[in-house]
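Retry 2 of 3 after timeout on previous attempt. Resubmitting structure tokens to design endpoint.
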């Protein structure tokens, strides 16, 4: 939808599409200005006014929710969904990735809502029985304990580096029977709206439709946020994003308002010594590593950036690592455009850092990167480049090591995913890496294959998004009573 040649990002409030009181805002990167309702005019309508209004969700069975999700998935077909088509086209301008990657993400949305995948994810992360009713247990002292997971009134500050994150958010909200306010990100202001509008067309009066709201507002609008981010309005904030935005959100945390932080991370890879024993294993590892570097054009926290390779630090080892780096760069350029492409814009500051290293060939070898297609930096000492936190746009740093003990000091609480090759090396590392801070361990080449059934950032977001309520049933006949305890002499 567009007005005055500028697209409109409507506001969705529980089944209502709002296009009044429009103000102009800009998407991240400055490529697109769009119109959206003035969020200050709707501050009193966005929150669920009364928690009792969640009760309609509890008339639904889990099978009802599955049926709704599956039908929604069938309608999230890019080929014939006009809302998705419009959102996809507009996202070409706002997204940090290139059009082929954006389109691939949109084409994959319907698969997220396949029945078997939802059941698997919910059973693994929450347990369906806890969503369906009170689960009983008899304790040692005779107390009957019942536990149930209830939904919450939640605000979701969604990241914009992958359209699927908006659908993950909506799905988690549905299965938990929660009420969601989704703050659309400036680099993806249209995906969640397209999904919510599809829900309204499919089932306008369904409780699941009426417990999703989507709005755009400028992050850091303190006057607006101070009114909205209150325990009487929302109980949980689920926040994805960079350091500054998450630091900003923490100012609103207070008793009754919990922050579930999916904050920025860096990921790494470990290449074992066996890799360098033959050309075949080097080539296999190179293709896998190129995928972990290149997926989403390295815009995800899961993407490999610094790679520790047990090639050895002597002259022969560094030479092998250089040969391996060329294999990685070559494999990266051959990745399908549904996985990776040259960057939308190669970061100028990063390119300057990389180009400076070309002049320092005593300590570094830079492979590629002249045309912004991505680069592999081979360190000749067992140290990462000084700007390793800025590695992006398919730019990775290979670091030679003699011992895997040297890798441990580089793993910390900011380390999300660690890709490992060969697979046998995992047995040596998987009980040690978490002690240093690593949060996810994967087979090299599969960093981008996130699973809803798995924990994320060392927590279980879906489980945390629920409210876990207990009911204790006890009587003096079954459980020792406090009022029957003997008094203690003074």
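Retry 2 succeeded. Sequence:
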């Amino acid at each position: 939808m567009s007005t005055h040649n500028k697209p409109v990002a409507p506001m969705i409030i529980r089944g209502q599409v709002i296009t009044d009181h429009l103000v102009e805002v800009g998407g991240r990167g400055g490529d697109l200005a769009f119109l959206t309702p003035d969020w200050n005019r709707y501050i009193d309508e966005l929150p669920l006014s009364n928690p009792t209004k969640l009760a309609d969700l509890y008339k639904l069975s889990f099978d009802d929710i599955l049926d709704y999700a599956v039908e929604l998935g069938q309608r999230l077909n890019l080929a014939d969904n006009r809302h998705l088509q419009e959102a996809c086209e507009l996202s070409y301008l706002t997204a940090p990735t290139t059009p082929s990657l954006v389109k691939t993400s949109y084409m994959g949305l319907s698969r997220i809502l396949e029945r078997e995948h939802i059941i698997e994810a919910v059973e693994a992360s929450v347990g369906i029985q806890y969503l369906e009713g009170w689960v009983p247990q008899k304790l040692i002292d005779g107390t009957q304990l019942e536990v149930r997971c209830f939904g919450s009134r939640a605000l979701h500050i969604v990241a914009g580096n992958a359209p699927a994150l908006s659908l993950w958010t909506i799905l988690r909200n549905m299965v938990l029977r929660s009420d969601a306010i989704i703050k659309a990100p400036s680099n993806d202001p249209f995906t969640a709206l397209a999904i919510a509008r599809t829900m309204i067309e499919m089932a306008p009066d369904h409780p699941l439709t009426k417990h999703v709201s989507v709005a755009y507002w400028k992050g850091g609008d303190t006057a607006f946020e101070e009114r909205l981010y209150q325990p009487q309005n929302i109980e949980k904030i689920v926040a994805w994003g960079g350091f500054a935005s998450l630091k900003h959100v923490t100012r609103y945390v207070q008793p009754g308002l919990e922050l579930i932080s999916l904050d920025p991370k860096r990921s790494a890879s470990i290449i074992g010594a066996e890799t360098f024993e033959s050309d075949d294993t080097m080539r296999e590892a190179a293709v896998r590593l190129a995928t972990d570097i290149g997926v989403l054009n390295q815009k995800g926290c899961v993407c490999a950036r610094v790679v520790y390779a047990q090639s050895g630090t002597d002259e022969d080892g560094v030479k092998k690592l250089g040969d391996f780096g060329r294999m990685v760069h070559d494999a990266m350029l051959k990745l399908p455009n549904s996985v990776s492409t040259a960057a939308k814009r190669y970061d100028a500051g990063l390119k300057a850092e990389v180009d400076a290293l070309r002049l320092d060939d005593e300590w570094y070898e830079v492979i590629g990167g002249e045309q912004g297609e991505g680069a592999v930096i081979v360190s000749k000492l067992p140290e990462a480049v000084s700007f390793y936190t800025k590695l992006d746009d398919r730019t990775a740093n290979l670091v030679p090591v003699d011992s895997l003990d040297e890798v441990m000091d580089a793993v910390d609480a900011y380390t999300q995913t660690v890709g490992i090759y060969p697979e046998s090396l995992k047995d040596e590392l998987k009980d040690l890496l978490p002690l240093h801070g690593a949060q996810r361990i994967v087979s090299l080449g599969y960093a981008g294959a996130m699973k809803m059934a798995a924990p994320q950032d060392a927590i279980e977001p879906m489980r945390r998004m629920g409210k876990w309520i207990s009911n204790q049933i006890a009587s003096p006949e079954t459980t020792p009573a406090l009022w029957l305890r003997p008094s203690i002499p003074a």
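Attempt log closed. Residues 2-263+457-471 form a domain with the Aldehyde Dehydrogenase; Chain A, domain 1 fold (CATH 3.40.605.10).
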